[in-house]
Design a protein that fits this description.
Elements (H helix, E strand, L loop, with lengths): L1 E5 L5 E6 L4 E5 L3 E4 L3 E6 L3 H10 L6 E6 L4 E6 L4 E7 L5 E3 L4 E5 L2 E7 L3 H6 L5 E7 L2 E7 L2 E6 L4 E5 L3 E5 L3 E6 L3 H6 L5 E6 L2 E6 L3 H8 L9
Antiparallel strand pairs: 1-2, 2-7, 3-6, 3-10, 4-7, 5-6, 8-13, 9-12, 9-16, 10-13, 11-12, 14-19, 15-18, 16-19, 17-18
Length: 226
């Protein structure tokens, strides 16, 4: 399998497969493919897999695409302005925000992860439910806006605007912290809480979370006078 990421603000991932190789994706992610690629849609894991994906905000079904000859091509597109990143989950499992998974090789497992801390689930900006990517192979994920990678040493901590955490290695600990100082809370523009990430491990920060963009656009939406 070979791949290349094409485009900038609305990229797609184009994958070239050898005969017999299979790639899987969430329903609706495929943009185009060669006529010789076979498609099969199923629940991948049965009813349990279907329910897990629905809880994660994904479609309950997974599409599988199989190359019938060497050089078969298929492309998957981003659903929001941002980046597509390739992650080798054979090296480490990755915890992601919901709806991050785009497509992967068949050895990648998509699991559900619940926040262990009540406060983090309520105020961390990522919600109680997150995705875990593990297994073997390559996963392609969607990042809102630009992506910034930060490697944290053991015990090193950073504070991040809630909602801006795209994903992190499973060795990273995530918690929340209340912004200190009433003046900072009222006039700082960062809200009441910040997300704390403690190493060791790698963290991916996104610069334009979809919920932030929605908030910026809301004042400009037409309002019905009825």
């Amino acid at each position: 399998m070979e791949y290349k990421i094409i485009g900038s603000t609305m990229p797609l991932i184009q994958i070239t497969l050898n005969r017999g190789e299979v790639i899987k994706c969430q329903a609706g992610a495929m943009k185009w493919m060669d006529d010789t690629v076979d498609m099969d849609t199923n629940m991948d894991g049965g009813l349990g897999g279907f329910i897990k994906r629905k809880v994660m905000g994904e479609s309950g079904f997974i599409n599988f695409f199989k190359a019938t000859k060497d050089g078969d091509r298929i492309a998957f597109g981003h659903t929001f302005p941002g980046n597509i990143i390739a992650i080798d989950v054979s090296k480490r499992s990755i915890i992601c925000q919901k709806r991050t998974f785009l497509c992967s090789t068949v050895g990648v497992e998509l699991n559900i992860v619940f926040q262990k801390r009540l406060g983090t689930g309520f105020f961390g900006g990522e919600g109680f439910v997150m995705q875990e990517l593990k297994g073997t192979g390559i996963a392609f994920v969607e990042i809102d806006g630009e992506s910034i990678e930060i490697d944290l040493e053991r015990g090193q901590t950073i504070k991040v605007d809630t909602g801006s955490v795209a994903m992190f290695e499973s060795t990273v600990d995530m918690n929340i912290e209340m912004v200190k100082g009433m003046k900072n809370v009222l006039f700082g523009g960062e809200g009441l809480f910040l997300t704390k990430l403690k190493g060791p491990g790698k963290v991916w920060i996104q610069t334009m979370p979809i919920q932030s963009m929605a908030g910026e656009l809301f004042p400009y939406l037409p309002i019905s006078t009825r």
